[in-house]
Design brief:
Strand order of the largest sheet: 1-2-9-6-5-3-4
Number of strands: 11
Helix content: 40-55%
Order of helices and strands: EEHEHEHEHEHEEEHHHHHHHEEH
Largest sheet: 7 strands, mixed
Number of domains: 2
Bound molecules: nicotinamide-adenine-dinucleotide, zinc ion
Shape: globular
Radius of gyration: 20 Å
CATH superfamily of the largest domain: Dehydroquinate synthase-like - alpha domain
CATH topology of the largest domain: Dehydroquinate synthase-like, alpha domain
CATH architecture of the largest domain: Up-down Bundle
Structural class: alpha/beta
Length: 369
């Protein structure tokens, strides 16, 4: 088992990563809350079928009665309607402000349950038990919680750090391969943005991690969590440019997702994989990055089965970028690279440069989503 401490605002919580942690949940809850007898467990319909029974069993063995609250699977659960239902259910469960809530699921359950925990009784501590690779390496670290509105994703939320994160790599064995790959794109991101050694490790061992090798998975997850924690610790509430580095591949990626209507045609992680490849190609075109580094990035993403290009109409993509949260008056903000592991924030990138790049991409590769 690997333990990664995360210290934020003077408080430390531990992200534990290992094979079989779910079976220890009862003892771990007991260690956090010695007197607890009941525990609200928030999960979604898919995860409830697969992984709720062993959790309930582990809690029961420690003398704790689980109070399951099941939300619909999928992004739609991050809504005001589900939030209201969840908050009502939490209040009905009798959970005290000094009590505990457990979130068992992917990023959707973590974001929704974390936000409900943040606002119910003005804040109840919660534990994240992430069940997707994306949730283990990204959404369960950093304390961002929230829901979507009709105007866009993650527009309503709060910072609420978990009391602990228990990432059981065995839970990933039931995750559909496409979901695992989508999470893996975010793993690759940590190598590309600041850790060339980790990227080289992924070139050698990433495929084993994706195939379910638990030691390789634990190393990949722990390194990703350390990388995200190191960034978040330096910029907890996203006020400096540091946390923006986590957006490598995301300005291009968000435009692609928007153009595909946030549909199943393109998962977020797939868009990020394409976006990272584009950030490298754009950096090469701008004379910032050696072409060989961009070629290595594309080769690795493609080798594991992630897409590296999706040429959609440049004017449509630019239109979506105009609505990006990170834009300024004079230009667009991108995370660009001087090579693998050397990302930096580039403000005020002229629209015309981006347009010329996207047009060259569209000419070079003609397909659609
Ligand atoms: P998700 O939670 O929707 O999970 C993907 C699918 O896999 C769902 O159908 C789910 O039911 C299923 N699933 C989950 N675990 C499973 C398992 N072990 N076996 C089989 N099926 C399983 O999606 P996600 O990719 O985990 O998370 C995406 C969400 O995370 C988005 O809403 C995004 O905004 C959010 N996010 C938040 C942060 C943050 O900092 N808070 C960061 C990144 C992403
Ligand atoms: Zn992302």
């Amino acid at each position: 088992m690997i333990e990664v401490p995360v210290t934020l605002a003077g408080e430390t919580y531990v992200v534990s990563i290992g094979d079989g942690l779910l079976a220890e949940a009862g003892a771990r809850v007991r260690a956090l809350r010695p007197a607890i007898t009941r525990l609200p467990v928030i999960t979604d319909t898919n995860v409830a079928c697969l992984h709720l029974p062993p959790l309930v069993e582990s809690l029961a063995a420690a003398g704790i009665a689980a109070q399951p609250i099941v939300v619909p699977a999928g992004e739609e659960a991050k809504s005001f309607a589900e939030l209201a239902r969840l908050v009502d259910a939490l209040i009905a469960s009798g959970v005290a402000r000094s009590g505990l809530i457990l979130a068992l699921g992917g990023g959707v359950v973590g974001d929704l349950a974390g936000f409900a925990a943040a606002i119910t009784k003005r804040g109840i501590p919660f534990v994240q038990v992430p069940t997707t690779l994306l949730a283990m390496v990204d959404s369960s670290v950093g304390g961002k919680t929230g829901i979507n509105t009709t105007a866009g994703k993650n527009l309503v939320g709060a910072f609420h750090q978990p009391a602990a994160v228990w990432a059981d790599t065995a839970l990933l064995s039931t995750l559909p391969h496409r979901e695992r790959l989508a999470g893996y794109a975010e793993v690759v991101k940590y190598g590309l943005l600041g850790d060339a050694g980790f990227f080289a490790w992924l070139e050698a061992h990433g495929a084993a991690a994706l195939a379910g090798d638990s030691a390789a998975l634990a190393h990949a997850i722990a390194t990703s969590v350390r990388a995200k924690a190191a960034i978040v610790v330096r910029d907890p509430e996203e006020r400096l440019d540091i946390r923006a580095l986590l957006n490598l591949g995301h300005t291009f990626g968000h435009a692609l997702e928007a153009e595909c209507g946030y549909s199943d045609r393109l998962r977020h992680g797939e868009a990020v994989a394409i976006g990272m490849a584009q950030a490298f190609r754009f950096s090469v075109a701008e004379g910032l990055c050696p072409p060989a580094d961009a070629a290595r990035v594309e080769a690795h993403l493609a080798a594991v089965g992630l897409p590296v290009a999706l040429p959609l109409p440049p004017d449509r993509l630019l239109g979506h970028m105009r609505h990006d949260k990170k834009k300024t008056e004079t230009g667009l903000t991108f995370i660009l690279v001087r090579g693998i592991g050397k990302a930096f924030v580039a403000h005020d990138v002229p629209r015309e440069r981006v347009q010329a790049f996207l047009e060259a991409e569209a000419r070079a590769r003609a397909t659609s989503c």
